From TrEMBL:
Residues 52-288 form the Aminotransferase class V domain. Keywords: Lyase. It comes from Nocardiopsis mwathae. One of its GO terms (molecular function) is lyase activity. PANTHER family: CYSTEINE DESULFURASE, PYRIDOXAL PHOSPHATE (PLP)-DEPENDENT ASPARTATE AMINOTRANSFERASE SUPERFAMILY. This is Selenocysteine lyase/cysteine desulfurase. It comes from the Bacteria. Gene3D superfamilies: Aspartate Aminotransferase, domain 1 (3.90.1150.10), Type I PLP-dependent aspartate aminotransferase-like (Major domain) (3.40.640.10).
Amino acid sequence: MDLLTARQLWTLDSVWLNTAQYGIPPRCAHQVLGRAMEAWRTGTGDPADWGAAAAEARRRFAALVGSTPADVAQGTTTSQLVGMVAGSLPDGARVVVPEGDYTSAVFPWMAQADRGVRVRVVPLAGLADAVDDGTDVVAFSLVQSATGEVSPVKDVLSAAARHGALTVTDATQAAGWLPMDATRFDAVVCSAYKWLMAPRGLAYAHLSPRLRSRLRPISAGPAAAVDPMGSFYTSRMELADDARRFDVAPNWFAAVAAAESMRVLQEVGPEAVRTHNVALADRFLDRLGLPPAGSPIVTVAVPGAGERLRAAGVRAAERDGRTRLAFHLYSTEDHADLAAKALS
């Protein structure tokens, strides 16, 4: 699917430059969700169909991030999945995180303080240098939510490998536009309601085999069992032998839409999505006389920016004292120019 064809899948009543807050579904995703909701309302829905859609969504997420379905667990939020990893750390573990990162990638580690888990906060630019032989985990967002800055992944992964530290990254602001290889990390966690354009309440985690051997399936229920349908009423716990052992019950309706949204992303292709999104963000910055950022998430410090954008019909967000804009597949050159004009 080319970009022009994909663009026809959206009909918006605003200039939505706020995907870093939540993504807008393509028409096909909204339609399948509507059919599922109607089947629910009328009592004609089959959970087996919704479960099949959840399995398809898992497969599509795995393909988008360079993983395999067997290595992907299904959850509800980033903090829930990161919390599972944090809760499995040994007492006294040491974790390094970057300053200013999104709290869903930070708080779960800090919540283990009563077990002696210590969290060291350092500037993002110095994250790799902060990893040493005493570091058990280095955790960071692949793309920073507040600024859109892409983290120094290569340096961090190299430092973690030298010192034997686990790597846990939050890809919520990256998956869907930034091509990646999840197998380079021990864990890649992602909420699906932003760049993957799903309803809220669905998240995924690529979990490497080396990490899975250390994790406790603290939320295990039927969804985590070898035979989910045969495990509703048993005291004999037999869990799946792959990442599904860390699943929670699927969010059927979010997954129905997610499968379609991610199909569109796959058909367009990650490289094409990145090229489109970043080009628009850089075009916006250029119109303001600012240097390119190399990210579809950009921020500006312009007095009254939020009000000026709203008056022009542009939807953006205020984050950390700056105005944040985020460009995705449904964004156009006209949108970038309109936003820049409003702030000029």
